[in-house]
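Anyone up for a design puzzle?
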């Protein structure tokens, strides 16, 4: 069985170019103009898709955290109020969709609860992402599956048993993303060798990597280990306010990341040892005996 999945007009998985997702998430801080700038930066970097996050604040915010106070760009407000400030409404998402279409880039969204799935159904996103925090929410998984859209499941904070149960709940038309849910994540906890393990455990499912590290190298290494999707958080400036900014990549870094991934793909080759035509002059000049 082929390890591939169709997302919009693109196929992803083995035998296809690495699908690169720029996670905008909530790094826009509720500012639509910032979101448009981030979409433009992602297009310039050459990514395949941008991703946002959709939550229903009253459902996605634990009750014990809702009234906690915190300093924000909008003043000293409750955590629940903050969650509302970074959520886009229907009109704003219409503009995001329009802007992405005008720039020729795919956009998808992480859905954190069932009403968020229902909300996103009015838009033309070709897939939904299930965040690591919701991997064990089987009711949400079934609700998202019922839309008929492909799903991408992040596997941070999860055991292999929990991942198997999630896959059984979702069924076909899904991809799995290895990740560690620490922001930013230290190299010792990235555990990139889980990627080939997931490939072995789920031979028919595309396996990707969602990176939260500082730097670019591990994301390219993930491709060499078999990741066919790479997702990294994008920010206009890592000094911006927000919990995800420190684990994000600025526009110039994202350009380099895409180049590193494409060089990695080209460098892997087909695994067949051969003598290249470009080697012939050196072989004729330097080899003393023909042991053909």
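Challenge accepted. My sequence:
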């Amino acid at each position: 069985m082929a390890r591939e999945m169709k997302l919009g007009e693109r196929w992803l998985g083995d035998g296809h170019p690495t699908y690169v997702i720029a996670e905008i998430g909530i790094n826009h801080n509720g500012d639509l103009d910032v979101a448009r700038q981030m979409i433009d930066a992602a297009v310039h970097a050459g990514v395949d898709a941008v991703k946002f996050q959709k939550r229903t604040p009253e459902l996605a915010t634990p009750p014990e955290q809702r009234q906690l106070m915190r300093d924000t760009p909008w003043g000293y407000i409750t955590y629940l109020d903050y969650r509302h400030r970074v959520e886009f409404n229907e009109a704003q998402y219409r503009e995001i969709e329009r802007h992405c279409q005008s720039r020729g880039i795919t956009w998808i969204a992480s859905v954190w609860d069932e009403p968020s799935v229902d909300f996103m159904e009015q838009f033309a996103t070709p897939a939904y992402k299930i965040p690591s925090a919701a991997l064990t929410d089987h009711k949400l998984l079934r609700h998202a599956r019922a839309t008929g859209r492909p799903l991408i499941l992040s596997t941070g904070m999860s055991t292999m048993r929990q991942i198997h149960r999630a896959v059984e709940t979702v069924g076909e038309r899904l991809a799995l993303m290895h990740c560690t849910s620490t922001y930013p994540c230290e190299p010792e906890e990235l555990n990139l060798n889980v990627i080939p393990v997931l490939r072995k455990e789920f031979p028919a499912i595309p396996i990707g990597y969602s990176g939260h590290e500082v730097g670019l190298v591990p994301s390219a290494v993930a491709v060499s280990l078999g990741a066919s999707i790479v997702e990294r958080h994008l920010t206009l400036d890592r000094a911006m306010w927000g919990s995800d900014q420190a684990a994000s990549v600025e526009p110039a870094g994202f350009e380099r990341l895409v180049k590193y991934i494409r060089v990695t793909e080209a460098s892997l080759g087909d695994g067949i040892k051969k003598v290249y035509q470009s080697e012939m002059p050196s072989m004729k000049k330097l080899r003393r005996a023909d042991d053909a």
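A detail worth pointing out: The first strand starts at residue 4 and ends at 7.
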